[in-house]
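EI: anyone free to look at a 290-residue chain?
SC: sure, send it
EI:
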Amino acid sequence: MALNILVVDDSATVRAVIAKTLQLSGVAIGAIHTAANGEEALSVMKEQWIDLVFSDINMPVMGGIEMIQHMHRDAMLRNIPVVVVSTEGSAARIEQMKAQGVRAYIRKPFTPEMVRTVVEEIVGPHAEEPEQPEDEKAKPEELLKKTFTHVLEQYAFLFGDPLEESGPPSEIGACLCATMEFVGPINGTLALAMPAMLCQELASNVLGLESDDAATEAAAADALKELLNITCGNLLTALAGDQVIFDLSVPEIQSFSNEQWQAWRAVSDTVAFTVEDELVLLRLELQKQR
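SC: here you go
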C-alpha cells in the first residue's frame, strides 16, 4: 500500500531533501504533503489522509513536540506515527522525545536506506539501524574536518579536502557566511563561509535542480544554513558523546567581505577546505565548560 506522508520543517530546503530521499528510498509513496510548522501540519492532517509524519522539532509558531501533544489529544490524529528528523545527537534528548510519543528518530545527514529502514520499522518488518563510528579522543579540529567532509558528502554529494597551508587567497568574490551558537557541556560558536556560486551548487545538488535554475539561487542561503546546522549537530556528538544535551540557535546568514575572509584565514580556530576547487572556511570557537 502506498503511503501518504507529511513532511514538517520550517526550512524549504530540508522539506525538499526529505521528499527527495523518500522517493529514492524505494518506499511506496502515494502523496507527499508539506508544512512549515506544527500548526500548519495539524491543519493538513485534518484535511488529508496521512499515514506517516516526518517532522523537525525546533520550528517557529509551533514546534514538533507541541504538535505531537495536540495530535494525542485528537482521536482522529493520535495514531498517526511521527518520525523526528533532526541534528540532535543526545541519547537522553532522543529518549525524552520517544517518551512524548515520537515513534522513531532519524539524524541528519541521512540516506535513502536509513529512511527505508525507519519506515519499515513502523509499517513493515524490523531492521537494525546502522551503527555510527565513535571518535572520542580526537582533537576538535580533527573532528571538525572529519565531520564536515562526511556531512558534505552525505547531504550534498560534494567532496571536501582539508587545506593545511596558511594564508588567505589574494581576492575572493561574493561570499555568504552562516553562524550558529550552541550551549551545553561545551559552549561556543560554529560558522561556515562559502563562495556564493558554490552555495548555489550546494543548493543544486540538494534540490536536484540545475545550477542556473532560479529556485536554486533562491535556496542557496537556506542550503548553507542547513549544511552548518547538520555539521554542528554531528560535531557536538563527536565532541561530547550522545548522553548529553545541547541547545542550538537557528543559523543566521550574512554576506562576507574579502577583509573578513582574510582575517579568518589568519587565526588558528579556522579550518579551510577545498570543495569543487573553491575555498571554504569553517571557524569553531569554544568557550569555557560549565
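EI: Residues 214-240 form the longest helix (27 residues).
SC: 👍
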